[in-house]
## 1
Amino acid sequence: MALARMPSGIVDAEGLVAHRAADSVTDATGGKSVYPEMMYFFIAGVAIGVGAIVGTYLFDNASKGISFTPPTGVGIFALFYVVAQVIERLQEPFTPSVDAPKAGEEGTRLNKRKARALLESAIAGGDATEAANAQRNVDQIRANTTVLLFGTSALLAMLACGYLKAGFMQTVGVTGLTVWIEVLLTGLVVGGGTKSLHDLISNLQAAKEDKKDPKETKK
C-alpha cells in the first residue's frame, strides 16, 4: 500500500514527464509553434528553381518523339502517379539518413541523432521543461527535413515530367500556359507525393463524373 501513496511522478515517471512536457511547451518556448527554418526554405526554393529551368530545357530540347497515350482502362493521370511513386522509391533509402539540423547556440547545428538522445535523456531525468525543449528540437528538425525533401521531390518531378513532356495543368484542361510555368506547377503537384496526388486526382475524377450524371439522377 505504500506504493499507492507515492506521488504519481514516481510511480510513472515517463508518463508524467511526457504529460508535463506537453504542458510546459508554451512556457519553455514562449508559445511559438514549430516552423521550418528559413535556410531550408531557401534550399528548397533553389532546388525548385533549378528544376523549373532544367525541366523547361528538357521539355523544349530533349526527348523528341516521346508522347504518352494512356492504354484502355488507364487514366491520363496514371503517368503522374507513376512518376510520384518512382520519386518516393528513389528517396526512400536515403530518407532516414537525411538530416536537416536545427540552428544551435553560437552557430552550432543540432542534428536529429543528438536531438533524440537529448530528448531521451531529459525524459529519463524527469525534467519536464528540458523534455519539452528537447521535443521541440526534434520537431524542428523534422519540420526542416520535410521542407528539404519536398524541394528535392519537386526538382525530380520537374525533370521527369519535363523529359516526358507531361503537363498536369494541360491534363486538367488549362491551356495557354508558358512551358516553364507548366513545368513548375506540375513539379509542385507531383512532388507533393502519392497521397496528396491521389486525393487530388480522386477529387478531379469525382467532379468530372458528377458533371456527366443527368440532373434527375442526382439526389
## 2
Amino acid sequence: MRLILLGPPGSGKGTQATGIAEKCSIPAVSTGDLFRKNIAEGTDLGKKAESYTKSGKLVPDDLVLDMVADRLSQADCEKGYLLDGFPRTVPQAEGLKKMLAERGADLDHVVQIDVADEEIVERLSARRTCEKCGAIYNLKFSPPSVEGVCDKCGSDRLQQRADDVPETIRQRLSVYHDQTAPLVEYYREAGLLRPVDGSQPPKKVAEAIAANIS
C-alpha cells in the first residue's frame, strides 16, 4: 500500500502516521527526517540540501524528489510506504506521479486529516515543553500531574515554544493552506482523496482512517 498523509500542524498527523505504518507494516517516510539524515551523514544529496537550508532558502522540488526517490528505492519500501510531509505542492505531486509511473507504480490513497483552524490554535497554544528533558504536555488534553512540574524529571521549567504562540500558529496555518489547498483539489480530482474528521479523539481518527483505506 502506498499512501500520502496530509494534515495541518497540530492535527495529530505524526501520531496517526506511526499507527498506520505499524498496522500496515510499512515505513513512514518523513521528508524532514530524510533531510536531517542525509545532512548528518554528509551524503551528496544532504550536502546540496544543506547549502539551501543554511542560507534560509527553500530546497528545490527536484532535490526533494531526488531524496524521496532514493528513500523509496530501499528494500523496506518494496511492499509500500506512507509519505508524511510530502508532497507539499502540486509540482511536487506531479513529480511524484511521474517518478512512480516510471517504476510501474501508483498511489492508493491520500488521507487528509481535517481540523478547523481555531481548534488547531487552541491545541498548539496549550502545548508546553520541559526545557530540561524535552517532555511535551498539553494543558488541555495531557497536563502534568502537578501544575508546572514535569512528571518525568521533576523540573519546573515547562515553557511555551515560540512557534506555539497563537499569532505564529495562525501564520503557519496560513502557509499550510496556501500550499495545500491546491494539492487537496489535485488529489480529489484524481479520485485519491480520503478526508477524515481530525477533531475526534485520536482513536476515532485512527478508526476512520482504517475504514477509508481498507
